[in-house]
């Protein structure tokens, strides 16, 4: 049996989602001594608000597309939570909800209710959305004179994608 097979394709896709969340939660390490209040520009969202926005989007799409997997949602999309450990807990919870929504819909052979031509596109949408905001967070840090060095970022972000385990 070849090691790469269609059978483990779905596991690999779910694993990519888990890694995406690991990277996002790892990014919170940069804020263990503050900085979540930083904004790239006046009037724009703070870094804390970007994190809660990502969490909120995950839960809203799960609610709309796979309500059987929905979790309680704080209606404040751009809440300004300043405790990295609280943000990490929220992100882990919403990542589990997205995972469950996609896994259960694929396994049941059911479409999402409102969006997406295939349930897997929810994962791709969220990964793309969060990569976009990840870049914004790093830019905001740079603009605030607190750049996140490539050495630090490599270990907790790119290596999570690339290193063989
Ligand atoms: Ni967004």
In short:
With 165 residues, this protein is mostly helical. Helices cover 61% and strands 0% of the residues.
Task: Provide a descriptive summary of the structure in words.
Helix 2 (47-65) runs parallel beside helix 3 (84-108). The chain is mainly α. The model has no long low-confidence stretch (mean pLDDT 93). The radius of gyration is 17 Å and the shape is globular. The protein starts with 8 loop residues before the first helix and ends with a helix. It has one domain (6-162): Four Helix Bundle (Hemerythrin (Met), subunit A), CATH 1.20.120. The protein contains five helices and no strands. It binds nickel (II) ion. Nickel (II) ion is lined by residues 53, 129, 133.
Give the helices and strands, then pairings.
Blueprint: H1 9-27, H2 47-65, H3 84-108, H4 120-143, H5 150-162
Helix pairs in contact: 1-3, 1-4, 1-5, 2-3, 2-4
The chain binds nickel (II) ion.
Nickel (II) ion (NI) binds next to helix 4.
Please count the helical segments: 5
Q: What is the assigned CATH homologous superfamily?
A: dinb family like domain
CATH architecture, please? Answer: Up-down Bundle
Secondary-structure-based class equals mainly alpha
CATH class: Mainly Alpha
List keywords for this structure.
single chain; 165 residues; mainly alpha; Four Helix Bundle (Hemerythrin (Met), subunit A); 5 helices; 61% helix; binds nickel (II) ion
